Amino acid sequence: MDELMQALFDHITDHLLEKYYGQTAYTERCITRDEIGRKLWEQLPSEQREQLEALQRAYDHVQMAELEAMFLASFDQ
């Protein structure tokens, strides 16, 4: 993304996106995900916890890339 598109994307994700969560099952899905993750975390030894954290960071990066792609696609429309 160029600087302008990045600034728009950052503004939307920082200030506007949250107001649209109520129109989706976002909150409920986050709660479910967190409950499952917490149960798994409690069962893992420390080195596997590190792997789980790395996996979560990778998922977070993929999710952010997907949001960016959605944002760019919406501008194309």
**Principal-axis shape:** elongated
State the oligomer: single chain
Biggest beta sheet attributes: none
Structural class: mainly alpha
Q: Note the gap between the termini.
A: 16 Å
Mean pLDDT: 93
Give the radius of gyration: 16 Å
Q: How much strand?
A: under 5%
Order of helices and strands: HHH
Tally of DSSP β-strands? 0
Poorly predicted parts: none
Q: What is the number of helices?
A: 3
Helix content: over 70%
Describe the structure.
The protein is mainly α. It is built from three helices and no strands. The protein has helices spanning 3-16, 26-43, 46-76. The longest helix is centred in the C-terminal third of the chain and has 31 residues, at 46-76. The radius of gyration is 16 Å and the shape is elongated.
Secondary-structure blueprint of this entry?
Layout: H1 3-16, H2 26-43, H3 46-76
Describe the structure in brief:
With 77 residues, this protein is mainly alpha-helical. It has helices at 3-16, 26-43, 46-76.
Give me some keywords for this one:
single chain; mainly alpha
